[in-house]
């Protein structure tokens, strides 16, 4: 039986909230060091514990291996919650950081993409596909100007056994950043991260994403068809053709022909010693920040207006079609509030058991639906909805 011991951390402030987890500060009592702690209510994970075990397995394989990837420092459980303790990144999200700058040039975007792509190359060399690369999962370690940008949130990542040439078939990720092969369920692997990097690069250069549409259905159809343009023209006049070509290479529809992370790093936009840019009349590089902020802020206002309507419609639809989904929705906030109330220093903890071979195999074979989006209540609700559709068909 696992040994129960006093918790070595005390509870700090709540930092954020996800679909089924909250993130809190955790202060190590002995050292006084601060961590970001992902707190997951066990009731929300019943029957799906392998998802957390898989995240731990991925992070144990790569933690402390690359300066631009968050490290998992500790993981344990209480009678109510699972706890995962990570680096506390205090520098904010990628795009917030850009918008706070006084200016922002194509060379800045290239530096960011180069750094992130090197971290992606490391992940792929370790046999790991992230599957949820997006600006929200790119954080800065500190507020310092030269702070490292970090890849975070490995909840959807998988360890790929290259000798078995395994292809994953789950529909997972954030819709606007998902590759065509994910939607088509033809099997996917590391190339999905390259596609996501193409979307991120487009976003970093213009302030909006290439497949942004009025509905998720239209967005999915555009992604499958590779239907995007470098428009409106005024947003792209200040971006070099070399940068546009880099985006095109990453957004190659056929994953077989998509470049690897190593191949991307050899592209002229990232590899050339001299930065690429479109000069102004005075010969200086064009400042991309005004257009990037304008596009980003306009989309945020639109999303804010549309979100509540879409979310309410989806909740009503799921509640009507699937009793389990309604029950999950009803209990979701209650369970997360329970997690938030637990005081770590008052709790007794046990360290999670190592995975058995059967559990690891279950994590590899699972075909969960794990779509993260602004209008989605999370993977459980999505799976419940799809289960209902399967019954009707």
Notes on the protein architecture:
It is a single chain. The chain has helices at 49-62, 94-99, 106-125, 180-184, 191-206, 216-225, 233-236, 241-250, 261-265, 268-271, 289-321, 323-341, 357-365, 379-392; strands spanning 5-6, 9-17, 21-28, 34-41, 72-77, 81-87, 128-129, 138-140, 149-151, 158-159, 172-173, 348-349, 370-371. With 393 residues, the protein is α+β, with helices and mostly antiparallel strands. The radius of gyration is 21 Å and the shape is globular. Helices cover 43% and strands 14% of the residues. The longest helix is centred in the C-terminal third of the chain and has 33 residues, at 289-321. The strands form 5 sheets. A 5-stranded antiparallel sheet has the order 2-3-4-6-5. A two-stranded antiparallel ribbon has the order 1-12. It contains 14 helices and 13 strands. It has a domain at 98-304: Transferase(Phosphotransferase) domain 1 (Transferase(Phosphotransferase), domain 1). Residues 304-315 and 354-393 have low confidence and may be disordered.
Note the topology:
Blueprint: E1 5-6, E2 9-17, E3 21-28, E4 34-41, H1 49-62, E5 72-77, E6 81-87, H2 94-99, H3 106-125, E7 128-129, E8 138-140, E9 149-151, E10 158-159, E11 172-173, H4 180-184, H5 191-206, H6 216-225, H7 233-236, H8 241-250, H9 261-265, H10 268-271, H11 289-321, H12 323-341, E12 348-349, H13 357-365, E13 370-371, H14 379-392
Parallel strand pairs: 11-13
Antiparallel strand pairs: 1-12, 2-3, 3-4, 4-6, 5-6, 7-10, 8-9
Helix pairs in contact: 1-13, 3-5, 5-8, 5-11, 11-12, 12-14
Binding site for ATP: 38
Region (Disordered): 354-374
InterPro entries: Kinase-like_dom_sf, Prot_kinase_dom, Protein_kinase_ATP_BS, Ser/Thr_kinase_AS
């Amino acid at each position: 039986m696992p040994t129960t011991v006093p918790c070595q951390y005390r509870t700090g402030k709540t930092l954020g909230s996800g679909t089924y987890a909250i993130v809190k500060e955790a202060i190590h009592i002995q050292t006084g060091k601060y961590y970001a702690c992902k707190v997951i209510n066990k009731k929300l994970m019943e029957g799906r514990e392998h998802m957390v075990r898989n995240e731990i397995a991925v992070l144990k394989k790569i933690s402390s291996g690359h300066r631009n990837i968050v490290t998992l420092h500790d993981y344990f459980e209480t009678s109510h919650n699972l706890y995962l303790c990570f680096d506390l990144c205090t520098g904010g999200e990628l795009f917030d950081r850009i918008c706070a700058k006084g200016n922002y040039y194509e060379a800045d975007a290239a530096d960011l993409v180069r750094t992130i792509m090197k971290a992606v190359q490391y992940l792929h060399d370790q046999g790991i596909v992230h599957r949820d690369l997006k600006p929200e999962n790119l954080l800065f370690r500190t507020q310092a100007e030269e702070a490292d940008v970090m890849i975070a949130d490995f909840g959807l990542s998988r360890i790929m056994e290259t000798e078995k040439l395994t292809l994953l078939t789950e529909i997972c990720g954030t819709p606007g950043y998902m590759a065509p092969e994910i939607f088509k369920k033809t099997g996917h692997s590391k190339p999905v991260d390259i596609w996501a990097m193409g979307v991120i690069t487009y976003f970093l250069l213009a302030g909006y994403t290439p497949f942004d549409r009025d509905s998720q259905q239209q967005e999915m159809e555009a992604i499958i068809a590779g239907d995007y343009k470098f428009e409106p023209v005024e947003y792209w006049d200040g971006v070099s053709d070399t940068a546009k070509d880099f985006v095109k290479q990453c957004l190659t529809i056929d994953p077989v022909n998509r470049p690897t992370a190593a191949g991307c790093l050899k592209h002229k936009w990232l590899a050339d010693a001299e930065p690429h840019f479109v000069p102004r009349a005075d010969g200086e590089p064009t400042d991309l920040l005004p257009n990037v902020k304008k596009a980003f802020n306009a989309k945020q206002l639109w999303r804010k207006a549309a979100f509540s309507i879409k979310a309410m419609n989806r909740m009503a639809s799921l509640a009507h079609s699937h009793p389990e989904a309604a029950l999950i929705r009803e209990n979701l906030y209650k369970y997360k509030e329970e997690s938030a109330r637990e005081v770590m220093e008052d709790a007794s903890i046990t360290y999670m058991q190592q995975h058995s071979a059967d559990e690891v195999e279950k994590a590899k074979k699972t075909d969960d639906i794990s779509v993260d989006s602004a209008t989605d209540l999370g993977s459980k609700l999505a799976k419940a909805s799809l289960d209902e559709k399967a019954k009707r068909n």
